[in-house]
Specification:
Largest sheet: 7 strands, mixed
CATH topology of the largest domain: Rossmann fold
CATH architecture of the largest domain: 3-Layer(aba) Sandwich
Number of domains: 2
Structural class: alpha/beta
Number of strands: 7
Radius of gyration: 16 Å
Strand content: 15-25%
Strand order of the largest sheet: 4-3-2-1-5-6-7
């Protein structure tokens, strides 16, 4: 049996932190997993900036409420889900993802969670499991699934490389250059065809 594991931000929806950076005018928050391979380092950096500016969960959720899936993403996901099982594997957080999942038709999402202070500040974050994307792909394989994985960032590479087939979607020029062995796509139609051929 096959299961397709997709990253969320940059693949199906815009990058939440970039949208929040633009809404608040804080350029430092534009940094994502496309720029920083060390996720813990990136999150500590983000939390420090939020603290400096007195920003918490509510402010981020207000921005997320106005984010829509990337054009064509829901149609792509709907069609893909008619032919195979699909799992969204994201390093985002439950508190961020809920409204986006609604707009995508409630696909299955595995992600992480935030620790929220009494004042609404983001005190910390909890990863579901270490190396969550790779660990999940390996766990699926251990129960008889063949995985096909795709994403756009450094934190997607391990699950892509561990899968029977893997793809980059709307990735950076640097990641594509560093990984010429991975087929890279920019359009959902081409991406869907490649997944169908891999199934």
């Amino acid at each position: 049996m096959n299961i397709v594991c997709l990253d969320m931000e940059g693949v199906l929806v815009p990058e939440i932190w970039i949208a929040f950076s633009e809404a608040t005018g804080i350029p430092e928050l534009k940094k994502t997993t496309r720029d920083e391979p060390d996720y813990d380092k990136l999150m500590r950096y983000r939390l420090e900036i939020l603290k400096e500016h007195g920003l918490g969960l509510k402010e981020i959720q207000d921005v997320i409420a106005g984010i829509d899936p990337l054009p064509g993403a829901k149609e792509f996901l709907d069609e893909l889900r008619t032919i195979t099982q699909v799992l969204i594997l994201s390093d985002t957080f439950e508190q961020f993802a809920a409204p986006l999942m609604k707009k995508l038709g409630y696909p299955t999402l595995f992600c992480n969670t935030l620790v929220i202070g009494d004042d609404g500040s983001i005190a910390d974050y909890k990863m579901r499991i270490e190396k969550s994307k790779l660990s999940t792909v390996k766990a699926l394989q251990s129960i008889g699934y063949e995985t096909i994985a795709a994403g756009d960032s450094f934190n997607d590479l391990a699950m892509i490389e561990a899968s029977r087939a893997g793809f980059l979607f709307r990735s950076t020029e640097q990641i594509k250059k560093d990984h010429p062995e991975l087929p890279a796509f920019e359009e959902y139609d081409d991406f869907l065809e490649a997944i169908k051929k891999a199934l």
